[in-house]
Amino acid sequence: MGRELSNGDLPALVLAVLSKGPSYGYAIAREVELLSDQALRMREGSLYPALRVLEQDGLIVGEWAPQPKGADRKVYTLTEAGRKEMVRRTQELRDYATVIHTVLGRIGDAQPA
Amino acid sequence: MGRELSNGDLPALVLAVLSKGPSYGYAIAREVELLSDQALRMREGSLYPALRVLEQDGLIVGEWAPQPKGADRKVYTLTEAGRKEMVRRTQELRDYATVIHTVLGRIGDAQPA
DNA sequence: ATATTATACATAGATTCTAAGGGTATGTCA
DNA sequence: TGACATACCCTTAGAATCTATGTATAATAT
Question: In chain A, what are the domain boundaries?
């Protein structure tokens, strides 16, 4: 029910999701799962620490938002620096995914039929 | 000069390279770098431990091969179990690369122009 | 002599993950 | 009423994997 994310790819996806607008931990995780048709899973144990690192790095800012119903949420917004970093990291991630396909394709193509 | 491999992707690529025929640590690393046009880097500190794990898991077998010139090499060969596992892991890796593109594409497509 | 390339390996430390759990609130179902 | 599920926040322990760096040998190139 969903492969784990690879090393370091999680923050890039968090920034990508936040580039669509402010959101909070739980919703970010659900959004990634939704966008991947449940192929990716984002665990709380890696998400929340990652959010803290992104905030410490000044790429996002979090603010507590009291809710009329249910538990309060900590809503994160991308900063300007965060938007730039988002562009950089998502491009890196795309390039990585592309090169994986290239390498595996080249190896597969070399197989005897 | 080459992005590092993500978590867990290294053994899959090692198995993929070995599916073309026996090889040894140094050559495997160079092959991955070549096939990726130097976009990927495979470091010794992660390659050699990974080779040991793959051997312990019975997916590859290593044999020392004395060389007429230069240092001896430990040449690894894929086992039958290793070949099956190679198919499984490379497919997982392909799927992962694909879903990354899908997710980033969907987020990007939702951006205002 | 020194540096570079080819080859093997080890270890320390950092990062990031997985697994597991605690805590609150609301809604649902028997 | 009580149990359970869902929606949210968070933490910690331990495993896995990585990066960085160093040891070692041999050949080759400067």
Answer: 3-109
Q: Which token pair is B97?
A: 């690369």
Distance of B35 CA from C5 C1′ (whole Å): 20
Test B103 with A3 for CB contact under 8 angstroms. no
Per-residue pLDDT reduced to its tens digit, A30-81: 999 999 999 999 999 999 999 999 999 999 999 988 877 777 889 999 999 9
Task: Please tell me the number of Cα atoms within 13 Å of B8 on its side-chain side.
Answer: 12
Q: What is the enclosing helix (H) or strand (E) of B77?
A: strand B73-78
For residues A87-112, give the mean pLDDT.
Answer: 88
- For the domain made up of B3-109, give the CATH fold: Arc Repressor Mutant, subunit A (1.10.10)
Alpha helices in chain B (DSSP H): 9-18, 25-35, 44-56, 80-109
Please answer yes or no on whether A104 and B110 come within 8 Å at the CB atom. Answer: no
